[in-house]
Amino acid sequence: MATLTYKPENLISTVLNVLDYCSWCYTNIAFRLAIKYHCPDLKGMINIHTVEETDLIFLKSLDDPILLLMTESIGQFELTKKLIANLYTVKSEDIGRNESISVIAADFYYRTTIDGIPIYSEEEDRISYDDTLDLYALSLINVINWLFVLIITGEADLEQSFDENHPYTHFLEIDYTQEEFAVVLDLLRKLGVHLYHQHAAIIEMH
Q: CB-based contacts of 192: which residues, under 8 Å, 6+ apart?
């Protein structure tokens, strides 16, 4: 599935599912790093199924500067998801229940992010604080960029993801004030700006 289209009535659910998937994956990645560098006794024991506040509290307690950055970004994904859900009276427990939309969201995520980042417990030995994490942080910005494309045009040719003619920060230049979903786009832009600064901070720490 290269070009992704959506039914207008499924737009908000698609956006929420993509944000939810990003948050879940990023939390699992953070836990893989936390276990490898701080809690080796937990190796192979933890896989995150839903992102809970206690997960973020645990990650923050490790006082690891990169994990702190990641936790802040996970929190921003969760906040953005919550605000959009509240706008459209979507219950948090209903996000992810529609299997067809969940499949679309997962496909969207994997086509707009750098592949190969370990997110499961059996992959913990393959993860490290290296350039791969830098690329992953960058690709999360790309997710936001392509959500902009999807919302504004009604489709997204994900074969063009990371193409030099489609820069991952293009969403920062778009005037969306007259768009039907301007409020959603504004929330996504704020999340994208946060991720942009996070990416810069991760580069500085390497």
A: 141, 144, 145, 171, 172
Say if CB 191 and CB 144 are below 8 A apart: yes
Whether the Cβ atoms of residue 155 and residue 30 lie closer than 8 Å to each other: no
Compute how many other C-beta atoms are within 10 angstroms of the C-beta atom of residue 52. Answer: 12
Q: At what angle do helices 11-37 and 131-153 cross, to 10 degrees?
A: 170
Q: What is the pLDDT of residues 38-87, one digit of tens each?
A: 988 887 777 778 898 999 999 999 999 999 999 999 999 999 999 999 99
Q: Which of 135, 142, 131, 85 is nearest to 108 (CA)?
A: 142
Q: Give tens-digit pLDDT for 145-195.
A: 999 999 999 888 887 877 777 788 999 999 999 999 999 999 999 999 999
pTM over 0.85: yes
| Residue 13 structural domain | 3-205
Domain count, the chain: 1
Contact 25, 119 (CB under 8 A): yes
CB 170 within 8 A of CB 193: no
Whole-number pLDDT of residue 50: 83
Separation of alpha carbons 29 and 67, rounded Å: 10
Nearest to 10 by CA among 93, 74, 94: 94
